[in-house]
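Entry 14. Ran structure prediction on the chain below.
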Amino acid sequence: MMNEYISFLQKLFPAIDPYTAQQAKNAVKEFARYGEKTPFFTEPLDKDFQQGDIFSKVPFVYVDRNGQVQLAEVGGMLLTNSCDATRNELLQFAAVTPLESYSANPRNIVAVTSNINYQYLYFPDTKLHDSFVNLGLITSISRESFEGYVAAGKSERKVSLNLTGYFLFITKLTVFFMRPEDREVLISRDCGTAS
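Output, structure tokens:
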């Protein structure tokens, strides 16, 4: 029974084969060609939060390299799917980071703005050209608490994604979180399978 289940999972996951993953990576590179010619954002779509909405302030709790719990209020992008954002108890956000505070090294900035580093999502749009989304820095917040936070004026929904922005977002999210492990890791996982 266990072997059949593992065989089923190996066929099902990763849902993206390496060829498709490479195509997604190439698609991300294509978005960089647009520069500031193509808008990626629109005004907020309606009163409900939408996946990809960018907020001016989101409280992020994280543990630093010294083991200390830190709280930072920075911009944030809603990762939670739109329909879940209206009913789930928790909302997930990725941090929006200013380019100037990320690195002084021009090569690092180019890696972000060309979208070749899949952890970082850069929109070459005039509304957010000086910042990027860090998919590696995520926090969860009570939906009701965050709705109150926005209603109290502590945060503002700045923009929503248009269709082009949404496709760039979903491509980067998929490549970052769903790309297959390298061959050695997959082989080592297979060796640990019980019969």
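The first strand starts at residue 41 and ends at 42. Will compare against last week's run tomorrow.
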